[in-house]
Amino acid sequence: MTSVTADQRTELLGLTQNELRDYFVTLGEKPYRARQLYDAMCRRRITVFEAMTDLPKTLRGILEERTTITRTQIQSVFISSDGTRRLLLKLGDNSEVESVFMPEAHRDTICISSQVGCPLACSFCMTGVIGLKRNMTAGEIVSQVVVTLNHVYGEGIQVPHRTNIVMMGMGEPLLNYDQVIKAVRLLIDAKGLAIAPRCVTLSTAGVVPRIYDLAKEEVRPRLAISLTASTDELRNQLFPINRKYPLAELMEACRRYPSGAREYLTFEYVMLDGINDSDQQARELVGLLSGIRAKVNLIPHNPAPELPYEASPIDRILAFQKILIGAGLASFIRRPRGQDISAACGQLAARHQAGA
Ligand code: SAH
Fold first, then answer.
1. The whole model's pTM is what?
2. What is the whole-number distance in angstroms between the Cα of residue 334 and the centre of ligand 1?
3. Dihedral of alpha carbons 81, 82, 83, 84, sign
4. Which residue among 226, 242, 250 has the greatest number of ligand 1 atoms within 8 angstroms of its CB, and so is best to mutate?
5. Looking at ligand 1, which atom is closest to the CA of residue 205?
6. Which of 84, 99, 202, 216 has the largest count of CB atoms under 10 Å?
7. How far apart are CA 64 and CA 254, in angstroms?
8. How far apart are CA 341 and CA 44, in angstroms?
9. Are 183 and 138 in contact, with CB atoms under 8 Å apart?
10. Domains plus CATH for the chain?
11. Which ligand 1 atom lies nearest to the CA of residue 228?
């Protein structure tokens, strides 16, 4: 037998239990070994075969030679004074993506990427500046959670409280639909990573047909919509995709998205100084969201030299929020996390690629 080079080894993280079982059958192994490996890899987050002591040594040797758990590696870590950690990750082909870990007293939130870069070119977003490099595989998407949790808590160690996963890193998840859905299923698998289904949120700039597809899925993540404008005229300038799927169509898809009795649909609204933050625009937003059980997260814009916008002043954000709340909408101002380490939205990877 010729020896297998590193690049050809099968990546195991990202395979479902059934796929792993089928693979083990091709290796001539017993199916229950696949269950053991899945438990080690997904539930206990072990990434080295040597530590899987419940597997026979010979099998570990075979796996070592032909497979790898994940090729995702930590390239660098930036730790903010507020505890936020930003991980620059290197995928198997040397592509870079980022994940952000945000601790809070009773839960952690991990923000993950779904594409290397992004094709949508929203004018206020750094990821748009680099464009789309490629889609991520389900295994790569899931590996961000495994690698991030292992970095913070250690491999094989139970996380002390629950973890929220938000797909708000690089990329447009609904343009990588199949791999994203597969990743969501793996994340919430009770026998694996066991993230609570209600703790997985997918954020989209508004790929309307895929919102309808998502609505039909058996297991659905929570949906967040990056709105950031209350009229087509402005949204066309900020989100080129709005020309394809204008607000009326997007809002209709939102109205039809099934959510639980007490569940809110989240709308993200990045506050851009003098662009979308007037009282009048707040009232337009109220009108746009009428009839939807909506929660509006107001996000102070994270400025960058490459982006032509400034952040709205805090008193403007408060005045805007007051109008929303006065009209009966739930609205929160998102505390900027990790600003001292450019944790917002593709900034790290984008900067890194620009050589800055
Ligand atoms: N493509 C998806 C997910 C990635 S963007 C989407 O559009 O939702 C994730 C969130 O980051 C979005 O709500 C987006 O509006 C926000 N965002 C992007 N650039 C930002 C910036 N410079 N400052 C603050 N928020 C930003």
1. 0.94
2. 12
3. negative
4. 226
5. 7
6. 99
7. 46
8. 30
9. yes
10. 6-68 (1.10.150.530), 73-353 (3.20.20.70)
11. 15
